[in-house]
Amino acid sequence: MSNTNELTIGPDTQVTLHFAIKMADGSQVDSTFDGPPATFNVGDGNLLPGFEQVLFGLSAGDEQSFTLSPEQGFGQRNPNNIQDIPRTSFAEDMELEPGLMLSFADAQAAELPGVIAEVGDEVVKVDFNHPLAGRDLIFEVKILAVAVCEGSRH
Question: Are residues 21 and 66 in the same domain?
Answer without folding.
Answer: yes
